[in-house]
Amino acid sequence: MSAASGRAAEPRHRPWLAMILVVALGAGLAVALIGLPREHAALPAIARRALVVALPRWHITEPVNEVVYGTRGFDTFGETFLLLAAVVSVVLLTRRREHRAGGGGEEEAGRREERAIDPDCSVADRWEQLARLAERDEGTGTHLPRTPDAERLGQPGPERAQAMSVVVRTAARTAAPVLALAGVYLAAWGYSPGGGFPAGAVMLGVVILLYAGFGRARVEHLVRQSRVEVLELAGAAAIVAIALLGLVLRGSVSSNFLPLARDPQTILSGGVLQAFSGSELIEVSTGLIIAVFALLDMRHDWASDEEQER
Amino acid sequence: MIVVNYLAAGALFCIGLYAVLSRRNLIKIVMGLSLMESSTYLLLISLAYRDRSTAPVLVGPPGGRSPAGLAHGNVADPVLQNFCLTAIVIGVAVTAVFLSVAVRISQHYRTLDADRVRALRG
Predict the structure, then answer these.
(1) Is residue B39 one of the residues assigned to a domain?
(2) CB < 8 Å to B111, chain A
(3) Are A65 and A268 in contact, with CB atoms under 8 Å apart?
(4) Does any domain span residue B32?
(5) B113 — phi, psi (to 5°)?
(6) For the whole model, what pTM was predicted?
(7) Tell me, what's the ipTM?
(8) Do the Cβ atoms of A193 and A151 come closer than 8 Å?
(9) What domain range includes position B30?
(10) Which of 24-83 (B) contact A at CB < 8 A?
(11) B69-79 confidence digits (pLDDT tens)
C-alpha cells in the first residue's frame, strides 16, 4: 500500500518535530561556528611543528604526509583499523548462505523451508525468471562467451548487461593501466597529501572501471574475496609491524628506523612514512574493493514475506 | 569572509540531519548521513584556510623564498587537511556498512520504509 501511495506523496516521519529540532540545533551551531578562529588566526603549534620538521627530519616536502604518517601516525593507525572493522562488518552482513557439498548446508535448508511455507515459490513470474537468469549469467557466464571480446560485433538481438560496448571496453583498456600507475605513484613518491589514502581510492576506481566495462566475470580474479582479504590483512600487518619496529628500535611508536635519502622527493626520502603510506595503499584499496564488491555481489536472500501472507 | 564557509557547513549539516529525522526511506536516510559527513569536510578544509596563504607544500615557494622559509611563512593548516583525509575514508566505510544494512533490511522486510520495519515493536 505504502509503495503505491509512496510515489504520489513520499511518507515523512513527523516533519514538524524534525524541523523544530533542526532549527534549534542550527541556531546553536551558528553561534558556535561564528566563534571559531578565522582566516587571520595564527596556526596552531602542532601545525607549525609539522611544517618545520617535515623537510629537515623526514626529507619530504609534504607536511600533510608528515602529519598523517608521522606526527599523528598513531591516529592514522587507529583509523586504519576502524576501516578494517567496517570492512569486516560489511563482509559479515553481505555474505551469502554457505554452500556446502553435503546435505544440511544453509542454502539447501533455506530452500527446503521456503518450499514448506510457500509451495508456490518456485513459480516465478517472467520478470523474476529474467532477473534470475541475468544474475546467473553475471556470476558464471554459463551460456555466454567466456569474454565479451569473443562476441561478434554488430550482432542483432538484445544487449546484455554482461559488458559494455567495444568503444567503452577499448577506452577502459587504455585508461586502466595509466590510472593504476598514477595510483601507485601517488603513494610511492609521497608528493600527494595523504599518500596511500587517495592512492587506494584511485586503485578502487581502476577496478570499478574494469567492472563497468567488462562485467563481473572478467574481474572475478581481481576481486575474489579469499585473495583480496589476504592482501588487506597483509597491509594491516605491515602497518602494525612498522609501528612496533619503531617502538623496539627507536623507542617510540612509528618513529623512523629506515635510512633517509639525502634529497627530498625521492622514493626513499620519507623513510618510515613511505613504508607506512605504501602499506596504507594496500590496506585502503583492498578494503574498499572488498566493501564495494560485497555490496555489488549481494544476491537474493530468501526470507519469509510476512506482509503478503496476511 | 571564511565564516560564510563555516555557516554553509552548518547549514549542510542541518539539511542532512533533517533528512535523517524526517525521511522514512532508508536510502534517503543514508544520503542524509552522507550530507552530514560532507559538511564536516567543508568545515575542516575551511578551518585550515589562512588569509593569502599557500598550500602546505614545501616545494616551489612563491616570491623567491626558500622551502625552509616557507615553513615559517603563511601556509594553510596541514593538520586539519589530515583530519579531512581521514574523515573521507571513515565516511566511505560507514556509508558502505549502512548501505549493506539497508539492502539486508529490504531483502528481509521487502520494504525500505523505516516505519514498516517493526519486528522489535512487540
Answers:
(1) yes
(2) 2-3, 307
(3) no
(4) yes
(5) -80, 115
(6) 0.79
(7) 0.85
(8) no
(9) 3-55+68-116
(10) 24-25, 43, 47, 49-51, 56-59, 67-68, 70-72, 75, 77-82
(11) 676 778 889 99
